[in-house]
């Protein structure tokens, strides 16, 4: 007769089986194939040939790859803190129950639920320099197509700096998941601490600086690292749909778009796999930073 614990373990194994099959078939095996192709020359027409580290060396000498790498790092350094701060501000603003709060929370989460292609096409219309709503609003109060300050509106699709700013702006409105996590973290904080702060007549800034921020710091650190990792592919759809990697010279070409163009447009699969390997190494570095931050916080918290 089967023991209850054995039966429960068997049921758990059966429940996990579809996930494990998907994990192995859709994640682990493609990752191993990509790792192997990174050291080969493969164009889908001829069998792959072993080239060792030649692809990685060529990436170091490739100015387009270096540009894509710098663009990706700059995007992460600017967009990730802005996304986390934006989500934190909304979470602190909307954590209390009040009239209209539910609608505001839904509005904050809604852009995340929109399909990425549709989201990119929407922003392609919003950012149109001639008749896009954003520039139309900026021209309000101005003359001869200028803003109220007498300056030319941003050329979101043709100016390199403005195009990079547009990609960052697009990413700010897809922080719904970060907002939900921070909202849950804020609502989970103990009320007793805030009641004691109110008794001591602490100001709002003191409460945020001495209570809210320290208690939410671990969650903020995890979300920042998670966003830094995800930023490697956040930029693909906006750069592909809205700017197509331009304006010249490769102003919005990021690592994800570089890999796509190299592999699927130029059929240099081995070279694209080597670039993907670099992305994996960057992800591993971000995970290492996350692990060190968690360990440091735990040591500080125990002290």
From TrEMBL:
It is found in: Cell membrane. The chain crosses the membrane at residues 12-39, 73-94, 106-126, 165-185, 219-241, 269-294. It holds the Pfam family BPD_transp_1. InterPro entries: MetI-like (IPR000515), MetI-like_sf (IPR035906), UgpAE/MalFG_permease (IPR050809). Keywords: Cell membrane, Membrane, Transmembrane, Transmembrane helix, Transport. GO terms for biological process: transmembrane transport. Its main location: membrane. Residues 69-290 form the ABC transmembrane type-1 domain. It is a multi-pass membrane protein. GO terms for cellular component: plasma membrane. Belongs to the binding-protein-dependent transport system permease family. This is Carbohydrate ABC transporter membrane protein 1, CUT1 family (TC 3.A.1.1.-). It comes from Micromonospora nigra.
């Amino acid at each position: 007769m089967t023991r209850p614990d054995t039966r429960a373990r068997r049921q758990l194994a059966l429940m996990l089986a579809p996930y494990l099959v998907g994990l192995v078939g859709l994640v682990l095996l493609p990752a191993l194939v990509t790792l192997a192709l990174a050291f080969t020359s493969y164009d889908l027409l001829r069998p792959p040939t072993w080239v060792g580290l030649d692809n990685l060396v060529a990436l170091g000498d490739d100015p387009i790859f270096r540009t894509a790498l710098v663009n990706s790092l700059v995007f992460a350094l600017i967009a990730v803190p802005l996304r986390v701060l934006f989500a934190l501000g909304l979470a602190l603003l909307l954590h209390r129950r009040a009239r209209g709060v539910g609608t505001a929370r839904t509005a904050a989460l809604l852009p995340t639920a929109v399909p990425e292609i549709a989201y990119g096409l929407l922003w392609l219309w919003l950012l149109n320099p001639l008749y896009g709503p954003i520039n139309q609003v900026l021209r309000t109060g101005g003359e001869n197509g200028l803003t109220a300050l007498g300056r030319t509106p941003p050329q979101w699709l043709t100016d390199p700096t403005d195009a990079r700013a547009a990609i960052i702006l697009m990413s700010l409105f897809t922080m719904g998941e970060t907002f939900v996590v921070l909202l849950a973290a804020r609502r989970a904080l103990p009320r007793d601490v805030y009641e004691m702060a109110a008794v001591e007549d602490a100001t709002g800034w003191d409460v945020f600086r001495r209570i809210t921020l320290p208690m939410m710091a671990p969650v903020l650190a995890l979300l920042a690292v998670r966003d830094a990792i995800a930023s490697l592919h956040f930029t693909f759809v906006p750069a592909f749909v809205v700017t197509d990697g331009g304006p010249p010279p490769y102003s919005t070409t990021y690592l994800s778009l570089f890999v796509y163009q190299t592999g699927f447009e130029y059929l240099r699969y081995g070279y694209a796999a080597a670039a993907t390997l670099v992305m994996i190494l960057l992800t591993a570095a971000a995970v290492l930073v996350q692990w060190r931050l968690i360990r440091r916080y735990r040591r500080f918290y125990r002290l």
